[in-house]
Design a protein that fits this description.
single chain; alpha+beta; 4 helices; 8 strands; 29% helix
């Protein structure tokens, strides 16, 4: 069993910035030379998420609308009283869309559907640089 580690640096913008990282993940898997196994994608942070979706404008809009129903922006969260940072919604959203994803590797590539991309989502308000750790495990 081999393990290969890579990292991706992702500059993010405004609240709910969704970035397609499929090519970055595919490149790390290719560089690992692992043909059969798994790739684990993880971002250390409590206000971000990693998932799969069809990365197209309409679905991105629908996703934002759904999250607004699950954890609305315009309510006062108890978290705000603790830190005064007004990002309670960002933490709640990250609890639903976890900051990690594991994808099988088949024939040296992430095993994804035709319209399935891997995306990184920043739920927090300030723009920043996020780091995603990528572990490729297999043979």
């Amino acid at each position: 069993m081999d393990i290969f580690t890579g990292k991706i640096s992702i500059p993010t913008g405004n609240d709910l910035d969704i970035k397609d990282i499929t090519e970055d993940i595919s490149k790390i898997v290719k560089d690992s030379m692992i043909k059969d196994g798994i790739v684990n994608i993880f971002s250390a942070g409590s206000t971000c998420g990693i998932t799969t979706m069809e990365f197209e404008p309409g679905l991105k809009k629908d996703f934002r609308a759904a999250l607004e129903k699950i954890a609305p922006s315009n309510i006062d969260y108890e978290h705000h009283k603790t830190w005064n940072d007004e990002n309670g919604k960002s933490h709640i959203r990250s609890m639903f869309i976890k900051p990690e994803l594991t994808v099988p590797i088949e024939d040296g590539k992430p095993y994804l559907g035709t319209w399935q991309q891997i995306v990184f989502i920043d739920f927090d308000v300030p723009a920043r640089e996020r780091i995603v750790l990528v572990k490729v495990i297999g043979k």
